Amino acid sequence: MKTLVLGAGGVGGYFGARLAQAGSDVTFLVRPRRAANLIEHGVRVQSPHGDFTIQPQLRQAGESLEGFDLVILTCKAYDLDSAMDSIAPAMDRGCAVLPLLNGIAHLERLDARFGRDNVLGGTCHIAATLTADGVVKQLHDVHRIMYGERDRRITPRIEALDAAFRKTPVEAKLSPDIELEMWEKVAFLSTLAGMTCLMRGSVGAIAATPDGAALLTRYLAACCAVAEANGHKPRDAFVERMSKTLTDPSSTLTASMLRDLQGGGPVEADHIVGFMLGKARAAGIEDTLLAMAYTHLKVYEAQRS
Fold first, then answer.
1. 36, 248, 261, 299: most buried, per Cβ within 10 A?
2. What is the DSSP letter of 146?
């Protein structure tokens, strides 16, 4: 399987480098400044699972993107349109795209652009960032990726992708119901992002207050109800696990959206929180906390602009 990874930042750089390290044919599509850094230093990864460097194959805008079997897409939701333009030359003759964006709203836009049959389902759990000197740094030891055909078939292309990731140290899973996995993640992520941004603090700081744990639980319950209303009821084990995670008064967990907000950067307000709010209202689900979190983020965006 010949794979094109859009970008070489925290997520794309990490998973792409792991595939290349294990012997897969991987090429990174990058901007000129990043290309210069990678040509000089390679893709450098710092990880609790071992530091390593690979010498990457690179492409830049305007160069040929023919012959790829898979594109791994790891952009932020607010960059999706430009990202689709960048990978469009590769998306022909049966090439598939594996989006690892947060949330689930991007699937509709990718389907419209490239055709539903060419869009896989995928999600990942990793805290990784690109340092100022161009190193891909994994911040915690979790490095999990899940993928699957959205119609639940086991196809040669998904088997090839699974075989490639099984050669890496990454915790990889070919999911029999990848859209459920994605709905579960967005239910958790909307809760985490919405509440840590609204309260400007970690899960532990919120949970340690008199009403914080109850508010976190109520937000998660609303998001799980949204998922169920859309045909993807979260599993009991997931709800139990996430409830414990979100009510731990010792937790330092925050959403990357809070870090983006505190740094004055753009946020995925519409894609993560606004999406769930809209679905809650469509299903008649109580939405007060979601509306407060979304309003808070939209005020931030207006002030930022």
1. 261
2. E
Give residues with Cβ within 8 angstroms of 65, minimum separation 6.
4, 29, 59, 87, 89, 90
Q: With the C-alpha atoms ordered 100, 106, 111, 117, is the resulting torsion angle positive or negative? A: positive
The whole-angstrom separation of Cα 58 and Cα 8 is 10
185 is catalytic: yes
Active-site position among 2, 76, 137, 185: 185
Three-state SS for 149?
A: coil
* Phi, psi dihedral angles at 150 (to 5 degrees): -70, -20
pLDDT tens-digit readout, 171-195: 999 999 999 999 999 999 999 999 9
Angle at 10 between CA 275 and CA 235, to 5 degrees: 45
Question: Please, which residues have CB within 8 angstroms of residue 302's CB and are 6 or more apart in sequence?
Answer: none
Residue 305 pLDDT class (50, 70, 90 cuts): confident
Residues 118-160 pLDDT 10s: 999 999 999 899 999 999 999 889 999 999 999 999 999 999 9
- CA–chain centroid gap for 294, Å, is 19
Dig out the tokens for 189 from the structure.
Answer: 């992520």
